[in-house]
Every structure is written in C-alpha cells, then in structure tokens.
Write a structure and sequence with these properties.
alpha+beta; HU Protein, Chain A; two-stranded antiparallel ribbon; two-stranded antiparallel sheet; about 20% strand
Length: about 60
Amino acid sequence: MDFSKRQAEEIVNVLFDILKKGIKSGEDVTIAGVGTFTLVERKERKGKNPLYLLLVPLFFGFPL
C-alpha cells in the first residue's frame, strides 16, 4: 500500500481518536498485532531530578 504523508497522518489521527474515545469511556481498546490499551490510575510518587537531585512529584495521569 502506498499512502501519501497526508493520508498516513489522517490514518494515525483517526486511530488515536478511537483510542482516546474508548479509554475515556472506560473500555479496554485492543488493536490486533499491537496490543491492548487500558487506563490505569496510579498514585502520585516522588522522583529525583537527575540534574539537580531534587525530589519532585511524578504524576502518571494524562489529559484525554
């Protein structure tokens, strides 16, 4: 299959939109040959900034 850059970009954007919608609704999203995507909530924890050796909070959520 030959896709133009624009067509490939559109396909990727549609796939990510499908992933976001499925995960937002609480469903697991499975893409054959790639994997299963699910939203997991985790507690905030402290991590160390390697440059300044300061403890910083690490958040594991991301806006959908």
